[in-house]
Structure formats: C-alpha cells, structure tokens
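User: Run a structure prediction on this.
Assistant: Running it now.
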Amino acid sequence: MLRGFNTAGAGMIANQRHQDSLSNNMSNALTPGFKQDRSTFRAFPEMLIQNVENRNIPTENGLNLPRNQIVGSINSGTYLQEDVPLFEQGDVRETSMPTDVALQNGNLPDETGFLFFEVANEDGDVRYTRNGNFTVDAEGFLTTNEGYYVLNEDGEPIQTGSEAFEVTENGEVISAFDQTLLGIGYHPNANDFVKEGENLFNNDGEDAVVDAREAAGADFQVRQNHLEWSNVDTQATMADMTRAHRMFEMNQQVVRTFDQSMELAANEIGRLR
C-alpha cells in the first residue's frame, strides 16, 4: 500500500511541474522570439517482484529448500525529466518599428539546425537569442530591451548613433555612424542550446556556433520593421493545462483512497476487543 502512495505522489509532483512549465509558456505567449518548452516524462526503473518461500521436500531428513517464483514487474511511478525548448519558427509580423529585426528561416542544411542573433550578456559572454525587439541606448549602441549589446560578426557591439539606420536582408546594418554586419550564428543542432533566462540561450554542446553566412546551405532573410513572435500555441497549451490538472486530481484521489484504506486498517482491523 505504501508503494501506491509513492506512485500516486510521484504522479502529482510530475503533473505539478508540468503545469508550471505550461504556465510559463502561456505567460510568454506574447514575448517576441520566445520558444516554448516541452516536458519529457520518464518512468522510474521497474522492479521485479518475486515470491520467496521455503519448500519442504518429503524426505527422511525433512529437507527444506528455498524457492523463488517470479511474479512479474511493477512500475514505481513517473517523473518529469526535463523541459526541452521547441525550436520552430514563430510568426513574423510587421511592427513598423525600425529597431525591430526578425530572422526569417529559409532552407537550412541540418534538420535540427537553427539561427540566432548574437548578443553579449552582463559578463560580456556571447549568448544567443531570437528576440529582435532591439532598442538604441543613450550611447547610441544597439541593445536588447534588457540592455544586452547586440554584436556584429566580429563579436563587437554595434553602434548606430540613433534609430535612423537600415538593415538589409543580409543583415548589414547601415547608419551614419557605422556600417557593419549583424552577428547571426548558425548551429547544426539547436537541441544543444539551454535557456538562461531573459530569452537568452547558451550553447551547451560540443559543436561551435558558426557565422550563418559561412554555413554551407544556410538560407535566411533579415527583415527590419518586423518581429518574430512566440511559437506558443495558446489553444493547445490551454488544453494541456486542463489535462495536467485533471491528471493531478486523479492522482490526488488515489492518495486519498489509500489514506482512507490505511486509516481503516489502523483503527478498525487492528483494534483489539
């Protein structure tokens, strides 16, 4: 019976964490460039149940031999293993804002390949994002809304001086202050990227990020005055949230049933009269 408690409790915890992940997706449904997370579940290792008993052999000395009979396997519950970002192109919409820039994927040489803008985090390390909702700071540098410098192909901050600049389809930034290329990275396996918060990704794999313009077969288009929106499907997410809530309630009812059974066993069956 205690095993049933553990199994149902594990199901409640897994569905609660799944609900948290879905809630985070829903809250970022309007965040430009956001990539929704998919929860992956795994079962705990199965246990092999055996019936262990002694078997008496009708001999003169009364031989007693141990006997193990395999009953079968039982699963001890499930858990949420990890949340994996879903790297799919979000809708690209016109905003009429010159500081908004979107990456439009074309044909990519790898099935799991993806493109990213290159930015510098607060420590100056290169990070990657699909959020092209840029702005120009007081010093004339192109930054994200969180204040991270947008980098060029040489890994240096881009200075435009003002919002009066032009971005070509190849990612060339043309302003009265400077003329340079946006840092656009390509990676053959986007699943190697992990989220670090504030719509930034870090490459956690062994393959290095390369300049998208030098990656053979990488086709893309940079669109100024446009933004790539979140790839969250709000209707599907709401349906998944409802399903996770119901699964939580089902496991909760199982726990309640086991609790009532144990109460009966402790207070009624085990009572001495």
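The chain has a mean pLDDT of 87.
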